[in-house]
Design a protein that fits this description.
nine-stranded mixed beta sheet; 15 helices; single chain; alpha/beta; GMP Synthetase, Chain A, domain 3
């Protein structure tokens, strides 16, 4: 499907000429016996991976795949998932990885929206699509199970040709389609092309992905968070280690056993890892660089990671859609742990008010970004793409993030909140993140979220939802009283409620929409 809104990312001197597909082919020819993928007890060499990718590509081409056609995958992290991802690209297809956290209704909408030509499903998630999938006009493959309504993945691959189809690709061709949500309405498909992904490879050598890296990935492959570590490692000719499901102790065992050098984690994973009781007994000395993204990593957790977890700590702020990116090399800027860093090379961020005007230095505004890595647009939705764009006086395209923030005097970006999570109480703006940091500073609090709930007097008022540490004896009123002594009069929490756990997405973001829903149900009826 053609996107009619043109988005020209500012590449500057960065002009990629080699697609990722071309580089991976070269890597396999250069060192066929080197390890490419590891998952549990399975280890796959570059030569074996290359052969499997050829078979997958030929299978799809034999079925009439046209360049840019969407091919869906629904699975946990696995060797088949990784090889499918790469094989689809080799055939000229667009990888469409589906969220295993989505409801059957949302998955059906995604598949109909993208018009997938085929879907590859793991047994674990067969139940999510079983009721509707047989009525859809697409080929169905069972990755690891037998079912009369599905073709056998292994059987189909075994019958496919082994030669490289050598499909020519351009930077404008589709690379992947990632759906950002799906809880209501039609989910938004974020379309990335080969140019966007190739531009990300600029950091392969500086980050050491091409130096016999062993990258441990424990977030799902349907997430952009994962892809930005998965692809650079393979582009660099190194080895990806996949965890089908994250658990903190198992993660540490793999780092020690496999001498892991690189990793991409989300904030909730860092917290769980650092809280493993015998964390300090693991040999983690092989780790060179750890990345964090998807949500802000709390300053106290960053400090703990710097103190006890070997290797550099680098935090990225950015969006799946792309645009402005900031980078915090935490070990080099220990006084800036409350920020998400400075602008990455070639990136620009402007902060705007509700009228679309830039705010003065130091003021909070909505973050709008522009950079070398920008999506091609929302798939088939030029209206949504247009709504996402802000243009400066020169007419250049910036993406609106929905995040609020400000730059300090040194050019470090300080996040305030999601625009939609900002609470307007009595006409005053209250940033939930500020209140959450106060709650999290309480020694008895291990997790916290602040949401706006209805108030007759103020329109809405902030409510704290808190998870206490095991063994804590204080109650909700105690936590409320302590927090409100540290908050300004206009910020104070109206109440605190205790929870055993806060709902999170698979990449660790607190699902505030789910938390707000029961409080606003009556208001919305």
């Amino acid at each position: 499907m053609t996107q009619s809104i043109t988005i020209d990312p500012p590449l500057g001197t960065l002009t990629p000429t080699e697609t990722i597909v071309e580089r991976l082919r070269t890597n396999a020819q250069a060192h066929p016996d080197r390890l490419a993928l590891v998952c549990d007890d399975t280890r796959v060499t570059w030569g074996a991976l290359d052969a499997r990718c050829n078979r997958i590509a030929n299978l799809l081409l034999d079925q009439g795949l046209a360049k840019g056609d969407n091919i869906a995958i629904l699975s946990a992290n696995s060797i088949p998932y990784a090889e499918l991802f790469l094989g689809i690209l080799r055939a000229g297809g667009c990888v469409t990885p589906l969220s295993s956290m989505a409801s059957p209704e949302a998955l059906e909408k995604m598949l109909r929206d993208c018009g997938a030509r085929a879907i590859f499903v793991a047994e674990q998630y067969h139940g999510l699509v079983a009721e509707f999938i047989t009525d859809m006009p697409l080929r169905r493959y069972a990755i690891d199970f037998e079912n009369a309504s599905f073709e056998s993945y292994e059987g189909a691959i075994a019958a496919a040709a082994t030669d490289d189809p050598m499909i020519p690709l351009t930077m404008a061709d589709a690379f992947n389609l990632i759906y950002s949500s799906g809880t209501t309405g039609t989910p938004k498909g974020i379309l990335h092309n080969h140019l966007m992904r190739a531009a990300q490879m600029e950091r392969v050598t500086p980050n050491g992905y091409d130096d016999n890296a062993r990258t441990l990935i424990s977030t799902p492959l349907y997430s952009n968070t994962t892809i930005v570590a998965f692809i650079p490692t393979l582009f660099g000719g190194s080895t990806v280690h996949l965890m089908p499901k994250f658990d903190a102790r198992g993660y540490l065992e793999i780092v020690e056993r496999e001498a892991i050098t690189h990793t991409m984690l989300v904030p909730v994973q860092y917290k769980r890892i650092m809280d493993v009781p015998d964390f300090d007994q693991f040999d983690l000395s092989s780790m060179r660089i750890k990345f964090s993204t998807s949500a802000p990593l709390r300053a106290d957790v960053k400090a703990d990671v710097l103190a006890r977890f070997p290797g550099k700590l680098v935090e990225y702020y950015g969006l799946t859609e792309g645009g402005g990116v900031t980078v915090l090399v935490a070990d080099e800027h220990p006084s800036k742990l409350h920020t998400v860093g400075q602008l990455a090379p070639g990136n620009d961020i402007r902060l705007i008010d509700t009228d679309g005007n830039e705010v003065p230095q130091g003021d909070v505004g909505e973050i709008c970004g522009r950079g070398p890595t920008m999506m091609a647009g929302y798939y088939g939705r030029d209206d949504l793409t247009a709504d996402y764009i802000w243009r400066n006086a020169a007419g250049e395209v910036y993406f609106r993030s929905g995040d609020m923030g400000s730059f300090d005097a040194d050019g470090f970006l300080v996040l305030s909140d999601r625009k939609k999570d900002m609470i307007i109480s009595g006409g005053l703006n209250i940033y939930a993140n500020d209140l959450e940091l106060v709650l999290l500073a309480d020694a008895d609090v291990t997790d916290a979220a602040v949401i706006g709930v209805p108030s007759e007097a103020w329109g809405e008022t902030p409510l704290g939802l808190v998870v206490l540490r095991k063994g804590a004896t204080r109650n909700a009123d105690d936590i409320l009283a302590e927090a409100n002594t540290r908050l300004g009069k206009s910020q104070r929490l109206s109440s605190v409620e205790l929870r055993s756990v806060l709902p999170r997405s698979t990449i660790g973001k607190i699902l505030k929409k789910d938390l707000r829903a029961p409080y606003w149900a009556k208001e919305n009826t």
